[in-house]
Amino acid sequence: MLSIEKQILFLLSQTKEVTSQEFLQIYKMRGYSKQYIRNVLFTLKKNGLVYSPTRSIYSITEEGSSLIQSIRQKPLLYDKEWDSNWHVVMFEFTSNERKQRDQLRTYLLQLGFGLLYNSVYISPWDHQKQVLEFIELNKITNKVTYFCGEIMSNPLTPLDTLNIWPIEHLMAEYEKYWDWFENEFKAAIKPVNQKTEEELFINHLLLGEKLSEIMLIDPMLPKNLLPETWNGHKIFHSIYEYFLLLGDAIPKNSKYIRFVNSNLDM
Which of 19, 145, 208, 254 suits 126 as a labelling partner, its CA being 20 to 30 A distant? Predict the structure, then answer.
């Protein structure tokens, strides 16, 4: 899923409904064409994540809400204590069910699962509710098995995680995000108290989009499964705190305030 698609879902999850004209106006300020945004809305509707109760008005579906909720919970994992249990998803599809298989794989990776063996994905975190909702909505319950438990011998180490998750790539990506945040974004947004409500909202969305990109690739592993040099959690929290600062700076009587709250609404 593109980060812009996910951002539109976040905006819809904040309010009951949004008109297509509102979306076009918001994303015009961000440099997106009308046709591009119409295509994004069409794709979201086609995939069952949004619907139109009336013409040119959009609301989020149950499936869309479930996806957003699972993403919102993901950053909280960095501050959670791990119980040493592993959550495992196994599946088997026929060659004619490749699309369903690929959709499940993509969803598992976005939740933070890693590939242990062929068609066997693991995560240290409990994603049972999200996974079971996904397989039920997609009518693949007879294709997927979910279970959890401890590894009784040869437990996984930080060295093992390097082969299951792209940790080294993630570290490099985090450094790129931090360089952009410190040397480009903050320099352009300061002083915050002199920005218009439109500028605050657009930069709030921009920073949220970057956080969204991070969450799509970071499994948010427990600290004892990460290298000692890992600093991704510090970078994430620093960017997130600034994201909240921009949201709080938007005037309470602004027309954009309904799209902003204290959660991860990027």
Answer: 208
